[in-house]
Amino acid sequence: xxxxxxxxxxxxxxxxxxxxxxxxxxxxxxxxxxxxxxxxxxxxxxxxxxxxxxxxxxxxxxxxxxxxxxxxxxxxxxxxxxxxxxxxxxxxxxxxxxxxxxxxxxxxxxxxxxxxxxxxxxxxxxxxxxxxxxxxxxxxxxxxxxxxxxxxxxxxxxxxxxxxxxxxxxxxxxxxxxxxxxxxxxxxxxxxxxxxxxxxxxxxxxxxxxxxxxxxxxxxxxxxxxxxxxxxxxxxxxxxxxxxxxxxxxxxxxxxxxxxxxxxxxxxxxxxxxxxxxxxxxxxxxxxxxxxxxxxxxxxxxxxxxxxxxxxxxxxxxxxxxxxxxxxxxxxxxxxxxxxxxxxxxxxxxxxxxxx
Length: 356
Hints:
Blueprint: H1 3-28, E1 38-44, H2 54-64, E2 70-73, E3 76-77, E4 88-91, H3 97-102, H4 106-113, E5 117-121, H5 124-128, H6 133-150, E6 155-160, H7 172-190, E7 197-201, H8 208-211, H9 223-239, E8 254-262, E9 266-275, E10 281-282, E11 285-289, E12 295-300, E13 302-304, E14 310-315, E15 321-322, E16 327-335, E17 347-348, E18 351-352, E19 354-355
Parallel strand pairs: 1-2, 1-4, 1-5, 5-6, 6-7, 8-19
Antiparallel strand pairs: 3-4, 8-9, 9-16, 10-15, 11-14, 11-17, 12-16, 13-14, 17-18
Helix pairs in contact: 2-9, 4-6, 6-7
């Protein structure tokens, strides 16, 4: 081979090696792909849409506590709240659950947004329209079926709606009570391991006289804060390990003590949960089973998923963190049919606790 040709081949070989090395360095320098954010749809009426500044508080609460891998999704954008937040939502003023179901509107919204979690607070306008509870629950069932058709693994968080007392609607208050009393049973019937349905109590502690502007819509001084404080623990529990900064205190790292006070057909139970581990618990859910015949009628310092049977109590916004050796107190009032004993076994974030 002539010397000149050999030199040209040598230069080409060196150039090729240099380019390959540069490409390898460039590929190695690429950062790992970020985790896909959990897509959360906030589905409701005007209490979620134009009057739903609890959405901003919820977003800001999530960011402040390290839940940054969340994406609110929806075909609506309502930016008119204080601070920065994800404005996407599915809050439609004046809409009824029955109307959304009957008009087949939800599938299009789902197709456009693909949520992993749906937070649904619907029924206010249905009650205002004097529709019976059974009709509203039938609409819930239709909507849940459409959610699962889009995503078989979807998680639904359904709200017991806030009380309402609008001018000229004498049966609205009782209509809300009737609907809310039926929601836990509906949720228990339709919840599955693959696609769980959990309940958030937005009724207890909400006062139409002090927490709304007109007997229906939440005000910005107390109303939206109360709504957000109930949504936050339920959402972080649904997001699970992928979004919760420190969800698991470790097996045996908790202790539970229960004190009960009972009478003829009722009881109260005060539950103290102590973190016996060495690291803080940031976001918690306490699981236990009520004795047969007991039905929870009210609760405090936590959101209780159901009223009977297997119960999950999720932290409030103000007691989400349990420091090592610290405790939180929660409780409930219940009716009973003769068995007023306390639950005997508890789990904290799915880890078994000792009992005192």
